[in-house]
# Entry
Amino acid sequence: MVNKNFGFGTQIRKSPYFDSTVKWGATGFSVYNHMYIPRDFGDPEQNFWNLIETAILCDVAVERQVEITGPDAFKFIQLLTPRDLSKLSVGQCKYVLITNAEGGILNDPVLLRLGKNHFWLSLGDSDILLWAQGVAVNSGLNVKITEPDVSPLQLQGPKSAYIMIKLFGESIKDLRYYWFREIDLDGIPLVVSRTGWSSEFGYELFLRDGSKGNELYEKIMAAGKEFGLKPGHTSSIRRIEGGMLSYHADADIHTNPFELGLGRLVNLDSDIDFIGKDALKKIKTDGVKRLQVGLEIECEKLSGPNTRFWPLKNKNRIIGKVTSAVYSPRLKKNIALAIVDINYSKIGEEIEVSIEDKNFKCKIIEKPFFDPKKKITSKSL
# Structure
């Protein structure tokens, strides 16, 4: 039975896993990509420990897919992103940026190539479906852009591999990091990838038939019981430890790739054409005026992630803002992602952060804060 205090309406979509998440203890939801997402299965620190010690199953059906097909689909997808896709194989995923004409970031999705001219953009929270359809109108390219019936789950954590083997057999061990395959699980059509928004080893299971959502969720929970699988939600603690971006928080339309240290995703030296190329060339030539940095905040344990941007100061002058902050129980310190004036961006720089009208010392440190070489996520079985 749905908690009467949730206040759900028909104007916002529910995921195919909605009933199962409520059954398994979801006590709080928010809205992301025009859909409800479960955000609370109890203590977020326990959710973090479940993730890094065993495994959690997260309903991330809010990662809506933009499907691009048609004879010119490859040309079109390259038009949307500054990352060179010429070596992207069928069955492979790539982390990409979508930029506008000014070089601003509109989204940072994972791109999946399902065929020669068949792509999915697996989205963070923004209306890229409408952006892509608008770009297509005057592109002169023959493409079809839709939102397919596709809803992902994330199975993340060190025991996720054992659960996947139980579900799909030993062959799943051959699935490499940032690759995927199409699989049928007892009549449930799936795309399974070695990806996830957790900075931990894990998988995403993209359901291709929304009517089978609760069936899939229950199958995974049953298979994971002996391995300690818990229902969960995406962990702010772990994603900040890993330096992973949350769109609208750590990046937005006014942020460019170079400010985030993502110049590797911008190919300006080849003849590929993409939206924002001229602007990004100028930004690179002129140099950026601010940078994203990692921070250690010297105050009492933060009670939870920040719910507003905290000003950063040097001698009472605002020089930037904290975009994502949390207490890491593993690192035993408050960590944060921030954007600051480039003159104050060096490792070891000491500045101040204003939290609820109180100033605290903070220091710029290396990010990601844990596993910077991504050895956990990319390991082979």
